[in-house]
């Protein structure tokens, strides 16, 4: 009995084992689990993707400072960016130096000081300038003597001409003496008046003799002699008048020539003095020279020829100054040159001309751009760099701009195009998809996927996804992005 029971249990166990191995079952049970998990994840992504509209309450809209702007067509010009540096404007950058040798006695400004045009920045003592000023003084004295002589001879000439005219008019000697008492006649007045008086006397005697001869009171021979005396006196007076007019005319011309020569000597001496003082110094004239004091004849004032800032001082007081050696560097840094290099590979692509406005940025000055006007488009390629220069002038009071600073210059590479563009800050990217938010109402904002093109001046070209007139969010964009992402996670 016991053996039969054990036999039955063995048969049963064998049947169970055979059934276990022979019973049909799935080939890949794990795949079913994976597929189920993937389906659940895809469902979540689809739910998140379907959330494309955000609705905000008025308080949230106010706190996010949301601002919308209508989409417009705007001109967009393709550009490229060139590396370069800032440099001084060569028309507003000067070295102050002396045109003569001397000793630097006074330094009146320091690096960093603002100076104005004509301001004295230093003073030197130069014996050469002292000699030049002494020469000017001597020439001025000679000129004064020559001018005085010319004036006197001119007055004599005028007086003699007037006297001759009165004599020829038949005025009496007494009236001539009275009328010309204040005139300058030199020795000619006395000589001519005496000769005129002798002529009038000879005429009177000859007339009296003629009357006496007519009545037989005197002989004819005596009458003839007195007529001859009258003619002689008349000829003598005529000769004296002609000679006097010639003499005074010559003297007047000679004194005028002497005065002009003296003036030329003064001009030459002043030119030499101004050359020694330098082109930036105030021009010394005859009028201003009289103000120079004797104890300052050797002083030379060095002045700034421009408004600007003292950039550098190269000498100190009491040092000897040589001709042409710089003492100061002064520049007007409100005008700078941005110098970029155009590589030969970029030359054909760049379309820029004189006077055109380009955009300049500096890595050291974030979020700031400056406008520059092109003043030089180089024609010659630098053998060392293989590039041609492109220079634009920047006019700015921004003190962060400094000569030597690295810059980037954005220049056009093609003609301007009319495109749909929005502010770059309106465009956001999430999971490699670019999109914007369009306002459907005052409180509802819809995500719109877009394709973008080129960027310029903080504007981005939209090649698809938007139409003119769409109300695009330009402020508070990241608040909307956060809201739509949070909504997707909650789903």
Task: Offer a few descriptive terms.
491 residues, alpha+beta, 6-stranded antiparallel beta barrel, 4-stranded antiparallel β-sheet, 24 strands, 42% helix, 29% strand
Describe this structure in words.
With 491 residues, the protein is of the alpha+beta class. 42% of the residues lie in helices and 29% in strands. The strands form 6 sheets. Strands 4-13-16-15-14-17 form a 6-stranded antiparallel beta barrel. A 4-stranded antiparallel β-sheet has the order 1-21-20-19, covered by helices on one side. It has a 4-stranded antiparallel β-sheet with strand order 3-18-23-22, with no helix packed on it. Strand 14 and strand 15 (365-377) form a beta hairpin. The two termini are 70 Å apart.
């Amino acid at each position: 009995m016991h053996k039969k029971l054990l036999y039955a249990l063995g048969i049963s166990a064998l049947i169970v084992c055979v059934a276990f191995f022979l019973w049909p079952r799935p080939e890949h049970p794990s795949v079913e689990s994976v597929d189920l998990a993937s389906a659940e994840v895809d469902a979540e992504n689809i739910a998140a993707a379907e959330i494309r509209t955000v609705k905000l309450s008025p308080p949230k809209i106010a706190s996010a400072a949301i601002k919308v702007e209508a989409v417009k067509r705007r001109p967009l010009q393709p550009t490229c960016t060139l590396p370069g540096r800032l440099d001084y404007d060569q028309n507003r950058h000067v070295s102050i130096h002396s045109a003569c040798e001397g000793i630097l006695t006074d330094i009146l400004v320091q690096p960093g000081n603002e100076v104005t045009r004509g301001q004295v920045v230093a003073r030197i003592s130069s014996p050469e300038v002292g000699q030049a000023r002494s020469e000017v003084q001597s020439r001025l004295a000679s000129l004064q003597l020559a001018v005085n002589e010319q004036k006197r001879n001119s007055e004599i000439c005028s007086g003699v001409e007037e006297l001759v005219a009165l004599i020829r008019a038949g005025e009496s000697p007494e009236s001539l003496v009275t009328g010309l008492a204040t005139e300058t006649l030199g020795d000619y007045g006395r000589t001519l008046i005496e000769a005129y008086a002798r002529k009038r006397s000879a005429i009177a005697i000859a007339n009296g003799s003629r009357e006496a001869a007519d009545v037989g009171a005197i002989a004819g021979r005596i009458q003839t002699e007195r007529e001859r005396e009258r003619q002689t006196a008349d000829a003598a007076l005529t000769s004296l008048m002609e000679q006097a007019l010639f003499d005074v005319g010559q003297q007047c011309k000679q004194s005028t020539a002497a005065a002009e020569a003296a003036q030329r000597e003064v001009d030459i001496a002043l030119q030499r003095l101004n050359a020694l003082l330098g082109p930036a110094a105030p021009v010394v004239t005859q009028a201003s020279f009289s103000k120079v004091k004797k104890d300052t004849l050797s002083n030379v004032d060095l002045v700034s020829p421009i408004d600007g800032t003292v950039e550098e001082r190269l000498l100190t007081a009491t040092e000897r100054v040589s001709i042409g050696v710089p003492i100061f560097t002064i520049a007007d840094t409100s005008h700078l040159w941005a110098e970029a290099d155009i590589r030969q590979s970029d030359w054909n692509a760049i379309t820029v001309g004189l006077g055109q406005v380009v955009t300049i940025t500096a890595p050291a000055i974030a979020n700031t751009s400056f406008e520059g006007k092109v003043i030089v488009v180089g024609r010659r390629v630098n053998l060392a760099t293989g590039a041609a220069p492109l220079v634009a002038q920047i006019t700015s009071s921004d003190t962060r701009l400094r000569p030597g600073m690295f810059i980037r210059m954005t220049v056009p590479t093609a003609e301007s195009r009319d495109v749909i563009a929005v502010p770059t800050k309106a465009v956001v990217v999430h999971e490699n998809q670019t999109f914007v938010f369009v306002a459907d109402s005052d409180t509802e904002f819809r995500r719109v996927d877009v394709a973008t093109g080129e960027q310029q001046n903080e504007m981005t070209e939209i090649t698809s996804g938007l139409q003119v007139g769409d109300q695009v969010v330009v402020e508070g964009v990241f608040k909307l992005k956060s809201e739509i992402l949070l909504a997707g996670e909650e789903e």
